[in-house]
Amino acid sequence: MNVRDAAADHPSLPDKIARFWKLSAEKIRLVEAEYDFSRGSPVFTWQGKYTTRGWTEWTEGFVYGSAILQFDATGDEEFLRIGRRRTVSKMAKHVTHTGVHDHGFNNISTYGNLLRLAAERRIEAGEWEREFYRMALKCSGAVQASRWSTVADGGYIYSFNGPHSLFADTIRSLRSLASAHVLGHTLMAEHDEEVSLLERLIVHALTTAKYIVYQGAGRDAYDVPGRTVHEAIFNVNDGRFRCPSTQQGYSPFSVWTRGLAWIITGFAEETEFIDSLGETRADREVLERFGGKDAVLERFVGVAKMCADFYLDNTPVDGIPYLDTGAPALEKLGDWRERRADPYNEYEPVDSSAAAIAAQGLIRLGRCLGGDGTRYTKAGLTILDALLDDPYISTAAGHQGLLLHSVYHRPNGWDRIPPGRSVPCDESSMWGDYHIREAVLLLDRMLAGRYYTFWRYE
Questions:
Q1: Using the 8-state DSSP alphabet, how is residue 250 labeled?
Q2: What's the pLDDT tens digit per position in 34-55?
Q3: CATH at 338
Q4: Which helix (H) or strand (E) segment is 440 a member of?
Q5: Which range of residues forms the domain containing residue 435?
């Protein structure tokens, strides 16, 4: 289904989008004016003010990337200046950061968005400026790909937890490998071995599909198709899978919904990327190692659909999920799947950031599937329609966050619980704010009859 046709069911969306970008501008200005960047990257809000707390500096690119997206949507050069200046002065350390799986978050949001806008002729950028962005993206993709664990039947980019750890999140950071590949780059290893970034992207995705996504094939007693785990643990001595795990969800045998959202959007976007590859001999040779382009696409689309179906079957009717589908107090909410999510309930928090991430993936998946993707297109629009309204969009003048009711780390107790409440609510996260901007920009363009992908750099 065409997005413009599906949007007819949501007649207030254009007005909501217009209001959204005005509020977004206010929030970017607040952070730029008030946040002390010497304390580290802003991660999530506490009483409406951004603060820093986290394992790694994985959100800095979202801060400056948000300003770039704001320019993209509105043409206001104030935000282009912020995004350009901060990218040049702050982001170099992320390009060569060897300790994280977050390159696709930090560097595609900044260098990648700027190079994309230059390619679209939306900004004036000379050849040296473009080459600066290209070099950053090439290096980022190679550094990300070098963080590699080989296992018995594949391999993966390991998380900051160490070589034993495969995260669901990293599927979206594959954008760094894809970007470097389309720019003609490879990873050079010992003895001048050339390592294909496209091959590593595919191997990581297939390993993720096998060990992060349940297929309904009897893997264990909890093997429901489309269910995901946050983390897969491997024995680094022999490369064998050991067990599912989680860092931010309730348990390894329930579904942390932000991880599920990463999988949906990551596989939908990588499907678009693989489908866009031309018939160069090098690409064809890589794809043939996995059965050919059609076989890779079939696997990627199958995983995205399976997880999207699980998501839609296990969220409230507005598509905004609770933090974990197995959270222990969900049963106290009764038929929570049959009504709208309630961020002010007494038992379990919602995670609006998971909804913002999933919305984009559902819309992209719907487009990939054409007429067979109507369910996903409609679901993505339903989610955005809800997120762009009360009680999710932040209208308070002093609140630095844009998307309310995002949750960072419930098990660690990092999220603020307001007085009189029993679960976290009313706060924002930098990844939630960035991804709602990204999703709305995509919708904005599609309603205008246009589309965009992260790797269109020429």
A1: S
A2: 999 999 999 999 999 999 987 7
A3: 1.50.10.10
A4: helix 430-447
A5: 3-447
